[in-house]
Sequence to fold (230 residues):
Amino acid sequence: MMPDLGDVQAVLDFLLGLPEVAAYALIAAGSTLENLFPPVPSDTFVVLGGVLADRGSLEPIPVLVTAWLANVTGAMFVFSVARRRGPEFFASRWGRRLLRPHQFDRVSSFYERHGLWAIFFSRFLPVLRVVIPTFAGFTGLGVVRTLIPIATASLLWNGLMVGAGVFASRNVARLLEILGRVNAWLIILAVLLLAGIVYWWIRSRRGGEEQGSEEEGTAAAFDADRETPA
Fold:
């Protein structure tokens, strides 16, 4: 989500008038809150931080470090909460409705085998950058195995955003327009991947029901045979 291009200069004037500490705090807040509320336009905060670095009110490396640490901290906070509360939630009635035991086992197996790359690539996609690490926490994936892809992807993405802000600071409206288009395509890709996940959820749920019915029928037949007199 990008601000209206007509308001860009007003936003820049506001940011340029802020004390350095307040500007860094705003960048940190935007980068952190995205992990709790995905519509927060964290990319825009980081790009504008790069613009301010080019115009002399901030420094590019501190902007990058601020955005990076805040983004990683927010993501790991959500992951930690999910990791701590996940087993209890999925053992509850509502948790079993969301993911049945056989589905949860499959998700856990997926993260065990492909979690590092799934988390890494999800950090470049809107919405999924929050969903995928959260489910990594639900399945109990290790802290280090989660932190490494999150930190690496976040550093790369935020570095790109800061660099874009620095090198295109004299044409901010055009830069934000391009970034908006890129994010639109990334959202489309994320939606397609989410559709695939929903399809898997529906299909695996039905498969589990059929498997469960077969197992129950086999157990009932076995019990009947045991009870039949010789």
The chain has one domain: 5-227. Residues 100 and 209 are 10 Å apart (CA to CA).
